[in-house]
Amino acid sequence: MTDPHRPRLKVAIVRVSSLGDVVHNMPVVADILRHHPDAEIDWVVEESFVDLVKLVSGVRRVIPVALRRWRHSPLSATTRTQYAAFKRTFRAERYDAIIDCQGLIKTAWIASRGIGPVIGLGNRTDGAGYEWPARYFYKRSVQIERRTHVVERSRQLVASALGMPAPGADHAEIDFGLDHDAGALALAQLGLNLPVPYVVFVHASSRKDKQWPESEWIALGEALARRGASLVLPWGNDEEKACSERIASHFGDAALVPPKLALDAVVGLLDGAAAVVGVDTGLVHIAAALRRPTVELYNFSTAWRTGGYWSTKVVEIGAANRPPHLSDVKQAVSRFGLL
């Protein structure tokens, strides 16, 4: 029960990028509200991810930054004006804690623009980005065990920063807070004629070494199409769109390449899928966060760090020197009754 005489806890979360990391940071909001139901939680994030963070239940204000744009012209009048506007917005509140969940110099500096004590990571964990000079911006640093999943890294940091109990082992407590209805509405407003049931293929990644061969996507699509499933292939840039269209061309009306989708509509698309198959990238992590039937394809031994361990509906395939094999992917998809 909330104590009416206790002032509300005010927290700012700083996790600006990338897409997958923003997704993996979401459970900290539910963690805070579990112990402080009336907490006021703001989130500082890159402008391109605002639509997604707005879907997280319990986030009061989403405060956009444009570090990716500003770095190209840091001294321009436009950058100075936009930065000043960001700073005014951020400093409109005095926070009990400003928590830098990213651990980079740029994010620690951004966190220090707010009013309130800044708390952040005190060390690098295996496979995660970290820049030790960030600690100079912090009032307090939190040490995390080196081999820690990215979701647990943020949860443990926030728990320690706010004096809450350390997260337990109950996977049911891992709540990404995504608003399913809002995602469905954003998708419905586009008026797409989605074939049902459909499987989403997430083939695109900014890293070539994370990708799966087009021939394998086509072979998997053929197997699914024979069983009556349709395919939806989202994309984020022209190169990815061209790849989606090449794969879709093999399936005629059984495949759809949608227009470029905002992230709130992407949530609706993934949430309505019979299954999602994709490489280690942000959209696949959204599907896992939604606890949808998801097959995650790894070319590296990093599933322990980014995989969707909280859901039995998430299957991880592949590792270093053992890329995902088509037969294993088909077997995983068959668990969902599609093959």
Describe the secondary-structure layout.
Elements: E1 10-14, H1 19-25, H2 27-35, E2 40-46, H3 50-53, E3 59-65, H4 67-70, H5 77-90, E4 97-100, H6 105-111, E5 118-121, E6 140-142, H7 150-161, H8 180-188, E7 198-202, H9 214-226, E8 230-232, H10 238-248, E9 255-256, H11 263-271, E10 275-279, H12 282-289, E11 294-297, H13 303-306, E12 314-317, H14 326-334
Parallel strand pairs: 1-2, 1-4, 2-3, 4-5, 5-6, 7-8, 7-10, 8-9, 10-11, 11-12
Helix pairs in contact: 1-12, 2-7, 8-11
Describe the structure concisely.
The protein is an alpha/beta fold and 339 residues long. It has two domains: 10-173, Rossmann fold (3-Layer(aba) Sandwich), CATH 3.40.50; 180-334, Glycogen Phosphorylase B (Rossmann fold), CATH 3.40.50. Helices cover 35% and strands 16% of the residues.
